Amino acid sequence: MIACDKKSPEPPIVTPTPSAEAVTGSERIGWDQPAADAPELATIGYVVYVDGTRTALSGVTCGGASAGAGFPCTARLPSLTAGAHTLELASFVTDGSVLESARSAPLRVTMAALAQGASAGSTARAVLRDAGAQRNEIVADGLESPTDIAFVPDGRLFVAERAGRIRVVRPPSASATPRRPNAEPAIALADTLGAGVQLLSIAIDPQFERTRHVFAIYAAPSRSGDSMFTLARFREVSGTLGDRAVLLDGVTAAAPAASAALRFGPDGKLYAAFDDGGDARRRGDAGSLNGKVLRLNGDGTTPSDAGGATPIYAGGYGSPVAIDWDPPTATLWAADRATGGSPFVFYRGALFPAWTGRLLTAATLFDDRTASTVGLVAVGPDGAIYYGTATAIGRLTPARAP
Hints:
mainly beta
Protein backbone atom coordinates (compact mmCIF):
# COMPACT_ATOMS: atom_id res chain seq x y z
CA MET A 1 0.00 0.00 0.00
CA ILE A 2 2.83 2.39 0.77
CA ALA A 3 4.42 1.79 -2.62
CA CYS A 4 1.30 1.76 -4.74
CA ASP A 5 1.49 5.46 -5.64
CA LYS A 6 5.24 5.57 -6.20
CA LYS A 7 6.83 5.74 -9.61
CA SER A 8 9.63 3.40 -8.54
CA PRO A 9 8.92 -0.13 -7.26
CA GLU A 10 9.99 -1.15 -3.80
CA PRO A 11 13.67 -2.14 -4.03
CA PRO A 12 14.41 -5.84 -3.79
CA ILE A 13 15.64 -7.30 -0.53
CA VAL A 14 19.29 -8.30 -0.38
CA THR A 15 19.67 -11.77 1.07
CA PRO A 16 23.11 -12.77 2.36
CA THR A 17 23.35 -16.26 3.76
CA PRO A 18 23.04 -16.23 7.57
CA SER A 19 26.28 -17.29 9.25
CA ALA A 20 28.51 -16.64 12.20
CA GLU A 21 31.91 -15.25 11.23
CA ALA A 22 34.98 -14.01 13.05
CA VAL A 23 36.14 -10.80 11.37
CA THR A 24 39.18 -8.56 11.55
CA GLY A 25 37.61 -5.37 10.21
CA SER A 26 39.41 -5.56 6.86
CA GLU A 27 36.83 -7.81 5.15
CA ARG A 28 34.07 -6.79 2.76
CA ILE A 29 30.48 -7.91 3.04
CA GLY A 30 28.98 -9.36 -0.13
CA TRP A 31 25.52 -10.04 -1.57
CA ASP A 32 23.72 -10.64 -4.88
CA GLN A 33 21.59 -7.64 -5.79
CA PRO A 34 18.56 -8.26 -8.03
CA ALA A 35 18.05 -5.56 -10.67
CA ALA A 36 16.69 -5.54 -14.23
CA ASP A 37 19.80 -3.90 -15.65
CA ALA A 38 22.74 -1.66 -14.81
CA PRO A 39 20.72 1.61 -14.98
CA GLU A 40 18.25 0.26 -12.43
CA LEU A 41 21.12 -0.98 -10.26
CA ALA A 42 22.57 2.54 -10.26
CA THR A 43 19.41 3.90 -8.60
CA ILE A 44 19.67 1.58 -5.59
CA GLY A 45 21.45 2.54 -2.38
CA TYR A 46 22.34 0.37 0.60
CA VAL A 47 22.40 0.58 4.38
CA VAL A 48 23.45 -1.79 7.14
CA TYR A 49 21.84 -2.09 10.55
CA VAL A 50 24.49 -2.84 13.16
CA ASP A 51 22.69 -4.17 16.23
CA GLY A 52 19.65 -2.24 15.03
CA THR A 53 21.44 1.05 14.30
CA ARG A 54 21.18 2.24 10.68
CA THR A 55 24.39 3.16 8.85
CA ALA A 56 24.95 3.91 5.17
CA LEU A 57 27.24 1.40 3.48
CA SER A 58 30.33 2.90 1.88
CA GLY A 59 32.64 1.68 -0.84
CA VAL A 60 29.93 -0.33 -2.61
CA THR A 61 31.05 -2.01 -5.84
CA CYS A 62 28.97 -4.30 -8.08
CA GLY A 63 30.04 -6.56 -10.90
CA GLY A 64 28.23 -7.80 -13.97
CA ALA A 65 24.99 -9.69 -13.57
CA SER A 66 25.04 -13.50 -13.38
CA ALA A 67 22.26 -15.56 -14.90
CA GLY A 68 19.40 -15.65 -12.41
CA ALA A 69 21.56 -14.41 -9.52
CA GLY A 70 21.55 -10.66 -9.94
CA PHE A 71 24.58 -8.39 -9.61
CA PRO A 72 27.35 -9.48 -7.19
CA CYS A 73 28.03 -6.53 -4.85
CA THR A 74 30.43 -5.91 -1.99
CA ALA A 75 31.03 -3.09 0.50
CA ARG A 76 33.41 -2.31 3.30
CA LEU A 77 32.39 -3.53 6.73
CA PRO A 78 31.20 -0.70 8.95
CA SER A 79 33.31 0.27 11.96
CA LEU A 80 32.71 -2.31 14.68
CA THR A 81 33.65 -2.41 18.33
CA ALA A 82 35.11 -5.59 19.81
CA GLY A 83 32.56 -8.33 20.46
CA ALA A 84 29.54 -9.94 18.80
CA HIS A 85 27.31 -8.00 16.42
CA THR A 86 24.30 -8.61 14.20
CA LEU A 87 24.35 -7.09 10.72
CA GLU A 88 21.23 -6.66 8.57
CA LEU A 89 21.31 -5.22 5.07
CA ALA A 90 18.64 -3.22 3.30
CA SER A 91 18.41 -1.46 -0.04
CA PHE A 92 16.58 1.74 -0.86
CA VAL A 93 15.61 4.05 -3.69
CA THR A 94 14.88 7.76 -3.54
CA ASP A 95 11.90 9.05 -5.47
CA GLY A 96 10.73 12.17 -3.67
CA SER A 97 11.16 10.24 -0.43
CA VAL A 98 13.26 7.30 0.71
CA LEU A 99 11.66 3.91 0.10
CA GLU A 100 13.54 1.17 1.91
CA SER A 101 13.25 -2.59 1.62
CA ALA A 102 12.75 -4.96 4.50
CA ARG A 103 15.97 -6.01 6.19
CA SER A 104 17.86 -9.10 5.13
CA ALA A 105 18.32 -12.17 7.25
CA PRO A 106 20.76 -11.33 10.06
CA LEU A 107 24.47 -11.92 9.61
CA ARG A 108 26.24 -12.53 12.92
CA VAL A 109 29.90 -11.60 13.25
CA THR A 110 32.41 -11.37 16.06
CA MET A 111 34.97 -8.59 16.04
CA ALA A 112 37.88 -9.40 18.33
CA ALA A 113 39.82 -6.50 19.84
CA LEU A 114 42.95 -8.22 18.68
CA ALA A 115 41.75 -8.62 15.12
CA GLN A 116 40.63 -5.03 14.91
CA GLY A 117 44.03 -3.92 16.15
CA ALA A 118 45.79 -6.00 13.56
CA SER A 119 43.65 -4.49 10.83
CA ALA A 120 44.44 -0.97 11.99
CA GLY A 121 48.12 -1.78 12.07
CA SER A 122 48.15 -2.93 8.48
CA THR A 123 47.57 0.67 7.31
CA ALA A 124 49.65 2.41 9.97
CA ARG A 125 52.47 3.44 7.66
CA ALA A 126 50.13 4.71 4.97
CA VAL A 127 48.20 6.84 7.44
CA LEU A 128 51.40 8.25 8.88
CA ARG A 129 52.59 9.15 5.40
CA ASP A 130 49.31 10.87 4.74
CA ALA A 131 49.76 12.86 7.94
CA GLY A 132 53.03 14.34 6.70
CA ALA A 133 56.71 13.57 6.38
CA GLN A 134 58.21 11.56 9.22
CA ARG A 135 61.62 11.54 10.81
CA ASN A 136 62.83 8.01 11.56
CA GLU A 137 65.80 7.78 13.92
CA ILE A 138 67.50 5.15 16.03
CA VAL A 139 67.74 6.42 19.61
CA ALA A 140 69.47 3.41 21.18
CA ASP A 141 71.42 0.51 19.71
CA GLY A 142 73.62 -2.30 20.96
CA LEU A 143 70.61 -4.09 22.45
CA GLU A 144 69.74 -7.78 22.44
CA SER A 145 66.17 -8.81 21.62
CA PRO A 146 64.29 -6.03 23.43
CA THR A 147 60.82 -7.15 24.54
CA ASP A 148 59.46 -4.00 26.20
CA ILE A 149 60.31 -0.41 27.03
CA ALA A 150 59.13 1.97 29.73
CA PHE A 151 59.76 5.63 30.45
CA VAL A 152 60.54 7.23 33.80
CA PRO A 153 59.75 10.89 34.58
CA ASP A 154 63.31 12.12 34.06
CA GLY A 155 63.22 10.92 30.43
CA ARG A 156 65.30 7.78 30.73
CA LEU A 157 64.25 4.64 28.84
CA PHE A 158 64.18 1.32 30.63
CA VAL A 159 64.57 -1.47 28.07
CA ALA A 160 63.75 -5.11 28.86
CA GLU A 161 65.82 -7.69 26.99
CA ARG A 162 64.47 -11.22 26.65
CA ALA A 163 67.58 -12.76 28.19
CA GLY A 164 66.67 -11.18 31.54
CA ARG A 165 68.39 -7.80 31.52
CA ILE A 166 66.90 -4.36 32.05
CA ARG A 167 69.04 -1.72 30.37
CA VAL A 168 68.88 2.01 31.07
CA VAL A 169 69.23 4.49 28.20
CA ARG A 170 69.71 8.20 28.80
CA PRO A 171 67.03 10.55 27.46
CA PRO A 172 67.08 10.77 23.65
CA SER A 173 68.69 13.95 22.38
CA ALA A 174 68.28 16.06 19.28
CA SER A 175 71.44 14.45 17.91
CA ALA A 176 70.97 11.80 15.25
CA THR A 177 73.67 9.67 16.92
CA PRO A 178 72.12 6.66 18.69
CA ARG A 179 72.85 6.33 22.39
CA ARG A 180 74.28 3.17 23.87
CA PRO A 181 72.64 1.78 27.01
CA ASN A 182 74.55 2.01 30.26
CA ALA A 183 77.47 -0.41 30.24
CA GLU A 184 76.10 -2.29 33.24
CA PRO A 185 72.47 -3.42 33.15
CA ALA A 186 70.17 -2.18 35.88
CA ILE A 187 69.60 -5.86 36.67
CA ALA A 188 70.57 -9.18 35.10
CA LEU A 189 68.11 -11.82 36.27
CA ALA A 190 70.20 -14.67 34.87
CA ASP A 191 72.85 -13.92 37.49
CA THR A 192 70.53 -15.23 40.19
CA LEU A 193 68.00 -17.32 38.26
CA GLY A 194 70.35 -19.05 35.85
CA ALA A 195 70.08 -19.71 32.14
CA GLY A 196 66.68 -19.92 30.50
CA VAL A 197 65.13 -16.85 32.09
CA GLN A 198 62.86 -14.81 29.79
CA LEU A 199 62.06 -11.20 30.68
CA LEU A 200 58.76 -10.41 28.97
CA SER A 201 57.30 -7.10 30.15
CA ILE A 202 58.01 -4.18 32.47
CA ALA A 203 55.94 -1.33 33.92
CA ILE A 204 56.78 1.83 35.85
CA ASP A 205 54.85 2.76 38.98
CA PRO A 206 52.69 5.86 38.27
CA GLN A 207 54.13 7.17 41.57
CA PHE A 208 57.70 6.39 40.51
CA GLU A 209 59.18 9.67 41.74
CA ARG A 210 58.03 8.72 45.25
CA THR A 211 58.34 4.91 45.24
CA ARG A 212 61.08 4.27 42.62
CA HIS A 213 59.24 1.01 41.84
CA VAL A 214 59.69 -0.93 38.59
CA PHE A 215 57.57 -4.03 37.95
CA ALA A 216 58.45 -6.98 35.73
CA ILE A 217 57.06 -10.31 34.53
CA TYR A 218 59.59 -12.99 33.71
CA ALA A 219 59.60 -16.75 33.19
CA ALA A 220 62.33 -19.00 34.54
CA PRO A 221 62.90 -22.76 34.91
CA SER A 222 61.77 -24.23 38.23
CA ARG A 223 63.42 -27.10 40.09
CA SER A 224 61.17 -29.50 38.23
CA GLY A 225 62.39 -28.07 34.93
CA ASP A 226 59.07 -26.43 34.03
CA SER A 227 59.13 -22.75 33.13
CA MET A 228 57.17 -20.65 35.66
CA PHE A 229 56.04 -17.02 35.65
CA THR A 230 57.01 -14.53 38.33
CA LEU A 231 55.60 -11.05 38.84
CA ALA A 232 58.13 -9.03 40.82
CA ARG A 233 58.69 -5.49 42.01
CA PHE A 234 62.08 -3.77 42.19
CA ARG A 235 63.33 -0.48 43.57
CA GLU A 236 65.49 1.75 41.38
CA VAL A 237 68.46 3.60 42.81
CA SER A 238 70.97 5.40 40.57
CA GLY A 239 70.24 3.25 37.55
CA THR A 240 70.28 -0.10 39.33
CA LEU A 241 67.38 -2.29 40.42
CA GLY A 242 67.30 -4.15 43.72
CA ASP A 243 65.10 -5.02 46.70
CA ARG A 244 63.22 -7.63 44.70
CA ALA A 245 59.75 -8.38 46.06
CA VAL A 246 57.94 -11.34 44.50
CA LEU A 247 54.26 -10.43 44.17
CA LEU A 248 53.10 -13.56 42.36
CA ASP A 249 54.72 -16.79 41.20
CA GLY A 250 54.01 -20.43 40.56
CA VAL A 251 52.11 -19.79 37.30
CA THR A 252 53.10 -22.21 34.55
CA ALA A 253 54.60 -20.59 31.45
CA ALA A 254 54.37 -21.94 27.92
CA ALA A 255 57.55 -23.47 26.52
CA PRO A 256 59.76 -22.75 24.77
CA ALA A 257 58.61 -19.13 24.33
CA ALA A 258 56.45 -17.64 27.09
CA SER A 259 54.11 -14.67 26.57
CA ALA A 260 52.93 -12.08 29.08
CA ALA A 261 52.04 -8.39 29.34
CA LEU A 262 52.14 -5.88 32.19
CA ARG A 263 50.71 -2.36 32.44
CA PHE A 264 49.18 0.07 34.91
CA GLY A 265 45.58 0.89 34.02
CA PRO A 266 43.68 4.18 34.04
CA ASP A 267 42.44 3.25 37.53
CA GLY A 268 45.99 3.06 38.88
CA LYS A 269 45.83 -0.72 39.28
CA LEU A 270 48.41 -3.16 37.95
CA TYR A 271 47.22 -5.45 35.15
CA ALA A 272 49.18 -8.64 34.39
CA ALA A 273 48.41 -11.06 31.56
CA PHE A 274 49.78 -14.61 31.40
CA ASP A 275 49.74 -17.20 28.62
CA ASP A 276 47.90 -20.51 28.96
CA GLY A 277 51.03 -22.43 29.91
CA GLY A 278 50.76 -24.53 26.79
CA ASP A 279 47.35 -25.97 27.73
CA ALA A 280 44.34 -24.32 26.07
CA ARG A 281 42.01 -25.82 28.68
CA ARG A 282 43.43 -23.43 31.30
CA ARG A 283 42.09 -20.39 29.44
CA GLY A 284 38.56 -21.02 30.71
CA ASP A 285 39.50 -22.60 34.03
CA ALA A 286 38.50 -20.20 36.82
CA GLY A 287 40.90 -22.00 39.16
CA SER A 288 43.93 -21.21 36.98
CA LEU A 289 45.67 -17.89 36.43
CA ASN A 290 46.88 -19.04 33.02
CA GLY A 291 45.24 -17.44 30.01
CA LYS A 292 43.98 -14.59 32.19
CA VAL A 293 44.42 -10.87 32.77
CA LEU A 294 44.78 -10.09 36.48
CA ARG A 295 43.96 -6.79 38.17
CA LEU A 296 46.11 -6.14 41.24
CA ASN A 297 47.17 -3.53 43.74
CA GLY A 298 50.77 -2.39 43.55
CA ASP A 299 51.67 -4.77 46.39
CA GLY A 300 50.21 -7.77 44.57
CA THR A 301 47.03 -8.01 46.64
CA THR A 302 43.53 -8.18 45.19
CA PRO A 303 41.71 -4.81 45.05
CA SER A 304 38.83 -4.44 47.50
CA ASP A 305 36.43 -3.66 44.63
CA ALA A 306 37.26 -6.81 42.65
CA GLY A 307 34.21 -8.80 41.64
CA GLY A 308 34.04 -12.13 43.45
CA ALA A 309 37.12 -11.17 45.48
CA THR A 310 39.29 -12.58 42.69
CA PRO A 311 42.10 -10.81 40.83
CA ILE A 312 40.98 -12.39 37.53
CA TYR A 313 39.72 -9.57 35.33
CA ALA A 314 39.42 -11.29 31.91
CA GLY A 315 40.21 -14.67 30.42
CA GLY A 316 40.36 -16.81 27.32
CA TYR A 317 43.85 -15.87 26.08
CA GLY A 318 46.48 -18.18 24.65
CA SER A 319 49.56 -15.98 24.31
CA PRO A 320 48.88 -12.36 25.35
CA VAL A 321 51.63 -10.02 24.21
CA ALA A 322 50.15 -6.57 24.91
CA ILE A 323 47.33 -4.83 26.75
CA ASP A 324 46.12 -1.23 26.57
CA TRP A 325 42.98 0.83 27.09
CA ASP A 326 40.86 2.48 24.41
CA PRO A 327 41.07 6.17 25.42
CA PRO A 328 37.43 7.21 24.83
CA THR A 329 35.90 4.27 26.70
CA ALA A 330 38.72 3.00 28.96
CA THR A 331 37.94 -0.49 27.62
CA LEU A 332 40.77 -3.00 28.03
CA TRP A 333 42.10 -4.44 24.76
CA ALA A 334 44.46 -7.43 24.62
CA ALA A 335 46.58 -8.75 21.74
CA ASP A 336 46.83 -12.54 21.64
CA ARG A 337 49.63 -14.00 19.56
CA ALA A 338 47.77 -17.33 19.54
CA THR A 339 45.26 -15.79 17.15
CA GLY A 340 47.71 -13.73 15.11
CA GLY A 341 48.08 -10.68 17.35
CA SER A 342 51.11 -8.46 17.81
CA PRO A 343 52.17 -5.74 20.27
CA PHE A 344 50.09 -2.57 20.02
CA VAL A 345 49.37 0.71 21.77
CA PHE A 346 46.74 3.43 21.54
CA TYR A 347 48.24 6.76 20.57
CA ARG A 348 48.11 9.39 23.31
CA GLY A 349 50.28 12.27 22.30
CA ALA A 350 50.38 15.64 20.58
CA LEU A 351 52.96 15.09 17.82
CA PHE A 352 50.52 13.26 15.52
CA PRO A 353 47.12 14.93 16.02
CA ALA A 354 45.53 12.81 13.29
CA TRP A 355 46.41 9.69 15.27
CA THR A 356 44.94 10.77 18.60
CA GLY A 357 43.13 7.79 20.09
CA ARG A 358 44.12 5.56 17.18
CA LEU A 359 45.62 2.10 17.57
CA LEU A 360 49.16 1.36 16.40
CA THR A 361 50.51 -2.17 16.09
CA ALA A 362 53.99 -3.50 15.55
CA ALA A 363 52.75 -6.09 13.05
CA THR A 364 53.71 -4.30 9.85
CA LEU A 365 56.18 -1.62 10.94
CA PHE A 366 59.62 -2.14 9.44
CA ASP A 367 62.79 -0.26 10.24
CA ASP A 368 64.55 0.37 6.96
CA ARG A 369 67.72 1.55 8.68
CA THR A 370 68.40 -1.74 10.43
CA ALA A 371 66.42 -3.98 8.04
CA SER A 372 64.71 -5.61 11.02
CA THR A 373 61.11 -6.31 11.80
CA VAL A 374 59.55 -4.51 14.73
CA GLY A 375 58.94 -6.40 17.96
CA LEU A 376 57.39 -3.70 20.14
CA VAL A 377 55.72 -0.32 19.87
CA ALA A 378 55.13 2.39 22.49
CA VAL A 379 54.22 6.05 22.77
CA GLY A 380 56.69 8.15 24.69
CA PRO A 381 55.93 11.06 27.02
CA ASP A 382 57.23 13.31 24.23
CA GLY A 383 54.46 12.06 21.93
CA ALA A 384 56.89 10.21 19.64
CA ILE A 385 56.20 6.66 18.48
CA TYR A 386 58.91 4.32 19.73
CA TYR A 387 59.56 0.87 18.31
CA GLY A 388 61.99 -1.95 18.95
CA THR A 389 63.92 -4.12 16.51
CA ALA A 390 66.21 -7.04 17.29
CA THR A 391 69.06 -4.73 18.29
CA ALA A 392 67.75 -1.18 18.61
CA ILE A 393 65.04 1.23 19.74
CA GLY A 394 63.82 3.67 17.13
CA ARG A 395 61.61 6.73 17.22
CA LEU A 396 59.17 8.28 14.72
CA THR A 397 58.50 12.01 14.94
CA PRO A 398 57.01 14.48 12.45
CA ALA A 399 59.49 16.16 10.15
CA ARG A 400 57.86 19.40 11.32
CA ALA A 401 56.15 20.12 14.60
CA PRO A 402 52.33 19.94 14.39
